[in-house]
Write a structure and sequence with these properties.
The chain has 605 residues and is mainly β. The chain folds into 5 domains: 20-64, Laminin (Ribbon); 65-180, Sandwich (Jelly Rolls), CATH 2.60.120; 182-246, Complement Module, domain 1 (Ribbon); 258-315, Complement Module, domain 1 (Ribbon); 335-604, Trypsin-like serine proteases (Thrombin, subunit H), CATH 2.40.10.10. The strands form 11 sheets. The protein has a 6-stranded antiparallel barrel with strand order 35-36-37-40-39-38. It starts with a helix and ends with a helix. The relative contact order is 0.08. It binds 2-acetamido-2-deoxy-beta-D-glucopyranose (NAG) (7 copies).
Amino acid sequence: MFPCAHLFRCFHHFLFLSLSDVDECSDRSDEDLLCDHYCHNYIGGYYCSCRYGYLLHTDNHTCRVECSDSVFRERSGVLSSVDFPAPYPKSSDCSYGIEVEPGFKLRLQFDPSFDIEDHPDARCPYDYIKITGGSTEFGPFCGDKSPGVIETESNVITVVFHSDNSGENLGWRMTYTVIGSQCPVPEIPSNALINPIQSDYSFKDYIVFTCKPGYKLLKDAQYLDHFQVDCGSDGSWSSRPPQCHTVDCGSPKVVDMADVVFGNHDNSTLFGSNFTYICREGTFDPSNRNTSYTCGQNGEWTNSEAGIKLPNCLLACGHPSRTLPAQVKRIVGGRSAEPGLFPWHVLLSVEDQSRVPEDRWFGSGVLLSESWVLTAAHVLRSQRRDASVVPVAPEHVKVYFGLHDTRDKHQAVSRSVDEVILHPDFQPNNYNNDIALLRLSERVEFNNVTRPVCLPSPDNKPDHSSPPPNSLGVVAGWGISNLNASSSSLTSNPTLMADPGVTSDLLQYVKLPVVSQDECRASYASRSITYNITDNMFCAGFFEGGRDTCLGDSGGAFVMENQVIRRWVVFGLVSWGGPEECGSQRVYGVYTRVAKYVEWIQEHV
Ligand SMILES: *[C@@H]1O[C@H](CO)[C@@H](O)[C@H](O)[C@H]1NC(C)=O
Ligand SMILES: *[C@@H]1O[C@H](CO)[C@@H](O)[C@H](O)[C@H]1NC(C)=O
Ligand SMILES: *[C@@H]1O[C@H](CO)[C@@H](O)[C@H](O)[C@H]1NC(C)=O
Ligand SMILES: *[C@@H]1O[C@H](CO)[C@@H](O)[C@H](O)[C@H]1NC(C)=O
Ligand SMILES: *[C@@H]1O[C@H](CO)[C@@H](O)[C@H](O)[C@H]1NC(C)=O
Ligand SMILES: *[C@@H]1O[C@H](CO)[C@@H](O)[C@H](O)[C@H]1NC(C)=O
Ligand SMILES: *[C@@H]1O[C@H](CO)[C@@H](O)[C@H](O)[C@H]1NC(C)=O
């Protein structure tokens, strides 16, 4: 401030040097201080020193600071002149760097309190602060007017503060912050939610997208829980927003023997839609619960009670759609059945083309499930003179369902067969193990005239035979009313109908009592030929005989109603009869005892 002060001071010093020692340090007559901080006198001179943290400038008088190696890297901070708001050091050149990540711009805000030595005429000739950011310079600034806010447009700046060797000014202070590059506010896709919600987004901000309940987030053909986009340094988002698609539970799983009925006309499988599984005719869901499923927000069909567990439609076996007249009066002779009384009864048509001329015959069977029919082995044995047991080829067998009048055969539901399983121990000489299974090539649909029969519980105990003697069962068949067709011998043509056309057209049935094994054996022991009634057979019929009371069609069922569960159970298969005319005294029909074969059946079915 006083450029000549130095000269004057030196002269003054020199003037008194030879005369006496002067305490230069205490000589305060000079308005300029000798030393900036501390003055030390000695004989013939003095020297200056500085407070801790300061360095003596090469002028040997002022105290400067070393302040050029600070770099600020945080996204905000405060810088000030040394000792602010006390006077700043003299003779110092401070340089401060501020460096933040690319994408940010530094914004400086000077405190209103600002005091840097200036000059009324020249622009900041002594002390000044100057800011450089990229190619732009701000300042120099001095005086007592704060520069206020400076937007630098740069992420790397240098702040230079220069002070000369004089002046007592209070200095400056600034706060710096960053401003990120702004990303455009994204359009929110329909049914999407975003977080956080802000009026604007800048560098380092992000948005997490999720979808409303019932919608799934789809990004790049992938379903995700959430998706994050980041605002980049160049002011653009890292990715386009994802999309929210309505949750689609897809086609309901197929449940065997159940139909799907949608709650909405368009069969929608989207979130909120519903459907119900309906167990088909002849089947039932044992859990007996509501089988409505609703498409939940997780994309799964969900039942209010069972969750995602599916219902189970079980065969309701042995349930005719019509009940047998509760006539317990002894029946002699067959009666015409009504449609639906024996929905398990099927007609088998067999053509054995392995023989010339072609042999064609009919038999009966009983439906166990959608795919399996039970019948007698002798019905499906290829007709040969030797004792070999060869099944007929499956393609030569046809099964007719729900048939009441055989004349309607060609309109009836029918199936071909893809497997014929004769019991491996079938003995054609005595009809022991006369049982066989047929697998339908295509499932048959149940309805009120086509339903399965129940199997008995396995008969493992020798002391207890099922069915018990004297219990009454029912046999149905088209051959029942025809006396001639039902009488045959074991060795030649067994109990097969030559053609149902010559017997009855309408299905007949008869009620017959089970005959004790001893009585049956005794009746056959009295014949000229020895017949072998094995434990795998039982007999039914009346002692006194009577028309139609011995045999139905081969392979047809002897059924009894289980009084507890009120279901019809197949206990016997029409197997053979004596050589005498059917209906003669003490000529009983012989039936395969199905209870002996339950395990064998279950192995296959
Ligand atoms: C400062 O003092 C040193 C020795 O103490 C001397 O060499 C130097 O010349 C002095 N500088 C000034 C500017 O007086
Ligand atoms: C099934 O959907 C239909 C149509 O949206 C609706 O009227 C009905 O109440 C729904 N049923 C259930 C069980 O949710
Ligand atoms: C809905 O599904 C049923 C079978 O479940 C089908 O018969 C019907 O044609 C379907 N309706 C539409 C509109 O797709
Ligand atoms: C099943 O339950 C739903 C409500 O949970 C009800 O609307 C529907 O009528 C029920 N359906 C049946 C078949 O009971
Ligand atoms: C079976 O149902 C059909 C229609 O569903 C009906 O016409 C017919 O009479 C029923 N038959 C029996 C035996 O119940
Ligand atoms: C049974 O056969 C005899 C002789 O073979 C015949 O006279 C009689 O009419 C036949 N009966 C029936 C019901 O067809
Ligand atoms: C009857 O048949 C069984 C089984 O095939 C056999 O073990 C038994 O010896 C036969 N009895 C007679 C008398 O033929």
